[in-house]
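Person: I have long wanted to understand how a fold can be written as tokens. Underneath my words sits a plain record pairing an amino acid chain with its backbone structure tokens. Those tokens are not coordinates but codes from a learned vocabulary of shapes. I should like you to check that the lines agree and flag anything odd. The protein I mean follows directly.
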Amino acid sequence: LIEASLSMNSDVKIDVSTPNGVGNVFFKKRFSGQYDVFVFDWKDDPRKDIEWYKKEKRKLDSISPVIAASEIDRNYFASIEDMCIPYEYIKVAVNFDLEGSGKIIGGLDVADEGRDSNCLVVRKGSKVLYIESWKQGNTAQTARKAYQICLDKNVDVIQYDSIGVGAGVKGEFSNINAREKNMKMRVVPVNVGSPPTKGYFCENRKNVDQFINLKAELWWKLRRRFEKTYEYVYNDKEYDLDELISVPDNEELIRELSSPQYEITEAGKIKIESKEHMKKRGLQSPNIADALILSFYIKNLIEVRMRVL
């Protein structure tokens, strides 16, 4: 109603709000990419420091944790239940001081259509080093661009979603590897709709009994990385640093990680919300987050090591 009434009688409109859930008009405008956005965080106020934050958070948490999360932490997802990765877990991992070690892995999520973007995430061990998104190009062009970026970043393995339009990059990757024999890179297709990997999620609980498909397994195991990082920082729990995670302060990635919900099926398995259902809630496809989970597909990395040896 407000949008319609102001559409023809004002040259300048300024929308001001604190976060109040997702899917509403303000949220859609805020993340549409069509408007200039000014963020005024409490940290930008010279009168406020960490002690003010702790005091205010305690006061608001006594009423409802949702208030502090939305009004102070600017968390649009604070009131959403059953988030796969809670925002408080993600926040701790942002710029977490972690030395990346091990193989350099790239995860590529290929755009479906329309407004979706192609996304590439590069990590070294448990530390995310690089993120890039782009919309231009067909699947062949996407494969060439991703391959070149991975060469520049000294990536050992590219892992990509092989179902849907992602299947189109396979041939181009093969062509590139055939041409660039001196720079050949391991390329691993990942079908997230396939059954979970073999093995156990925890003692006496197989992955196949815990997750409805590989997508659910990858998302949930990424959640455990964030959760362990949170427990390492706040609860003084001891974990191997390779079990934790550090991500850059990338607003889009943070938003996407906290977007999908999960459910427990009648069979007792974890299922992650589909992109189609997310769009019905007014949320965009979590392309960067999907690229991140692809980079953490472990099964094939073990196979790669075995073949190389």
